[in-house]
Specification:
By secondary structure, the chain is of the alpha/beta class. Helix content is 22%, strand content 26%. It has 15 helices and 37 strands. An 8-stranded parallel β-sheet has the order 27-24-23-20-17-12-29-28. Strands 2, 4, 5, 8, 9, 10 and 11 form a 7-stranded mixed β-sheet that branches. A 6-stranded antiparallel β-sheet has the order 30-31-32-37-34-35. A hairpin with an 8-residue loop joins strand 6 and strand 7. Helix 5 runs parallel beside helix 7, helix 6 packs parallel to helix 7 and helix 13 runs parallel beside helix 14. The chain is globular and about 80 Å long. It starts with 15 loop residues before the first strand and ends with a strand.
Length: 646
Amino acid sequence: MDKHILYHHSHQHFYRSPFGAVPVSETVTLRLSGALLSEALAVQLRLWRDNTGEEVVLMKPVVTQSWEEDAWEVAFIPDNSPGLVWYYFIVTLENSVVYYGNNSKRLGGEGRMMWDIPNSWQITVHRKELQVPEWYLQGIIYQIFPDRFYNGLTGQRVRAPKKNSFIYGHWSDKPLYIRDPATNSILRWDFYGGNLEGIIVKLDYLKDLGVSILYLNPIFEAASNHRYDTGDYKKIEPMLGSDKTFQQLCQLAAERGIQVILDGVFSHTGSDSRYFNREENYDTQGAYHSKNSPYYPWYTFKNYPDEYDSWWGIDNMPNVDEMEHSYRNFIIEDEDSVIKRWMNKGAKGWRLDVADELPTPFIREIRSAMKSTDPDAVLIGEVWEDASNKVSYGERRSYLLGEELDSVMNYPFRQIMLAFFLGSMTGEAAADHLMNLYENYPKIYFYSCMNLIGSHDRARILTLLGEAPDEKTITLQEKTDYVLTRKQWQLGKNRLKALIGIQMTFPGVPSIYYGDEVGVEGFTDPSNRKTYPWGSEDQDLLAWTKKMTHVRLQHKAFTKGDWEILQAGCDHLAYKRMLNDIEMAIVVVNRNPKKGVVFTEKMDQPCINVFHELVTETDITVENDMLRMELPPLSIRILTSKIGEK
């Protein structure tokens, strides 16, 4: 539809001010323009407040010299309490009614005219005071799957091996589950022997990499290697170490400016735990064996004792009732609660596993207990979608309104980047999706997102970027044995370099999944949980990752600077980072592996005469206020300049 008939663009100041999310009681001005408005009998703004419901507000004509067509406007307060507000426009003509709403992809920005009820734009209304600890906002995260990172014991011995488990003979062996052919359940858990001492030994490596935050997959006692089936929340897994080892890790890490964040798995326990004790490996009266157990109220039995609620139907992970009084006290409220205990021993925060399966009051109480213990601690949620409007179990979640999380795992960022580099999404489409997150998230949360490109729950990023076959189309054995060809490896590596460049210059907190920085490949679990290849690292990729992390750390524009899309084409994406009147940075990416791109941009900062390009270490002169640069196939260029620098 021609924009001069009706038009609203939620990213443009003329049409929506202020941009994006707003604090409670903030006045927002919305405008609708277009030639059709000259025939309007009435123009209305239709609002839906999640807190209070529907409201229709009359708009008024506005006289402006900055726009050729007629325009109508309304100033209103979206809400006086945190929540989401949705809007579209209704134009009443003499013989008909037309609507103007969000585009068909619901990505915000430019809308479209409809003869029927349209999609709505979103306004996120958050608490006035939003704070995320500065150390976290400025940090770089490194995620470690403890069993697979490094064995720091003398002679690489494996401490406290479990009964009926399998210990690999060599650190470089490929992981493979031993399953029951009839039920597909795991018969023997497999281990390599990585431990907390191993992380301590490698702290200097992590410091040199630019890491300032360690996110550890679960470290509490459990039967499995992944330890999401908690056996004892108050005991470090003996294979990994002890309370003392953990405290030593936190202390030595802090001396290097590195903080430790733990994985909190509170939606379920293990069946092999002191609380459920189905396997009778603990000396406690577990819920499975007695209704008189102090832990019995934690669980929901359908037909006692063998039928009970479990996580996604997996019977060795029985679900808990998080709001049950004694469980809530155990995890949160007691003086020696799980949350407080490990923070008092050195943890600087928690990552909440399956946050969308935890009740809202439970998350808020964790936050309160955590912040009362350490106001500077951080709470991160595992959320796979847009966290501003996530609905789970029929409830609109309020993660980013200032009362729950400090950060979320930014899986949407990962998905957008993968689609862009693999060619299923153009640069324009990638820009639209990124802008949608920017519009929906309160700014401080856009800047606090855990920007991951790899994790223990997804295939290795190098394997995906190297265009390995869809793992659903190959056998388990083929999946286990698959190795990228030399051509695939080089393509994947070149794409990964460019993606790391984006990750380290984009708003948010970058997260490196152990081994991604040295070229570990593999499909999903267990292949994505291979050991770190000490002594066989891809040194070129490691050097590049270090270069990019240090680019981020040395230029505050990449952590604190404003963010703006400059250009987007089929194959390229360019954005600007501006830190007040101190520094400007421009990042340009060409995803095409065969063709170069010529980037030109009219500079709105005429005082900048030269940029320093950080990848090639060359200077680029701005001529006649025009920046021009040639990008080779599949490349990234990162330009920085001090404002007023000659």
